[in-house]
Specification:
Blueprint lengths: L2 H20 L1 E3 H8 L3 H13 L3 E4 L2 E4 L5 H9 L2 H14 L5 E4 L3 H9 L7 E4 L2 H6 L7 E3 L4 E3 L4 E3 L3 H5 L4 E6 L3 E2 L4 E4 L2 H12 L1 E8 L10 E5 L5 E4 L5 H9 L3 E4 L13
Parallel strand pairs: 4-5, 4-9, 5-6, 9-12, 12-14, 14-15
Antiparallel strand pairs: 1-3, 2-3, 7-8, 10-11, 11-13
């Protein structure tokens, strides 16, 4: 009998690994993948939902536990002034009437506020928080995918999010990342988010990266892209020489903007 709890734990760990990778999976898909009955998966889903790690939906299961709450709240408090001036510079690059993809996160929420200075925008985002910022703008059109809201950061999770995004063509894709290393690799912490952002990048005319300096030299679980795939980087200080060299080699425009100089510094290209 002692082996039964161990078997159950291994099955639930395997289930979580699948859901973390996919973001969303149907009941029948996960039952087939693990070689167990749908009834067994329902019991596992119920227990995992009680732990706050997943959310049951009609016919499936959505991952809700990718983010560490302490880390997220630390992000909210980190470099708030710098995020604001970066956001304002990003908004200055966006033209009235443009179609925009807006990533998720505290930096992009500041970008959403700054974009209120524009007119007649069409915005696609999977952040319920950013979408709410545009609520009173009748000249804006805002599109969000269906799904379950992850309460810690307002991300909308569910099947087909990348398919939803692929319907659009963007003038600008505005991104933020968990970190960038000295080799110019941009990373994030959530495979589900990376898939959506990669889809938006593939359908964007210009890709803008909002980068606070606290993200430089830090990592993330999943590679998003290389720096050379970005068109413009807006940051709150000069980039370290190795990263700046990579940007220049790949014709990436770098715009440093200081909280003390909100009009921006000298651009490198």
């Amino acid at each position: 009998m002692a082996a039964e709890p161990e078997k159950k734990d291994k099955r639930r760990a395997a289930l979580m690994a699948i859901v973390e990778e996919r973001g969303y999976i149907t009941l029948s898909e996960v039952a087939a993948a693990l070689g167990v009955s749908a009834q067994t998966i329902r019991r596992d889903m119920t227990e995992l939902e009680k732990l706050g790690r997943v959310k049951r939906t009609h016919g499936g299961i959505t991952f809700t536990g990718a983010l560490d709450q302490r880390a997220w709240h630390q992000r909210q408090r980190s470099q708030t002034v710098e995020k604001k001036v970066i956001a304002e510079q990003i908004a200055d690059l966006v033209t009235d009437g443009a179609t925009v993809f807006l990533d998720i996160g505290t930096t992009c929420e500041e970008v959403a506020v700054a974009l209120l200075a524009r007119r007649n925008l069409k915005i696609v985002t999977y952040s319920i928080r950013s979408a709410a910022i545009f609520d009173n703008r009748e000249d804006f059109t805002v599109a969000i995918p269906g799904g379950i809201v992850r309460h810690i950061d307002g991300a909308i999770l569910g099947a087909g999010g990348d398919d939803f995004i692929s319907q659009f063509r963007f003038d600008y894709a505005i991104l933020a990342v968990s970190g960038i290393d000295m080799h110019g690799t941009l990373r994030d912490d959530d495979e589900f988010e990376v898939l959506r952002v990669r889809t938006a990048m593939a359908h964007a005319r210009q890709i803008l990266l909002a980068l606070t300096t606290d993200k430089i030299g830090t990592g993330g679980l999943v590679k998003l892209c290389d720096l050379g795939e970005i068109d413009v980087v807006v940051t709150n200080d000069q980039l370290p020489s190795p990263i700046l060299s990579i940007a220049m080699e790949n014709n990436v425009e770098v715009i440093p903007v200081s909280p003390l100089d909100p009009m921006g510094g000298s651009a490198h290209k």
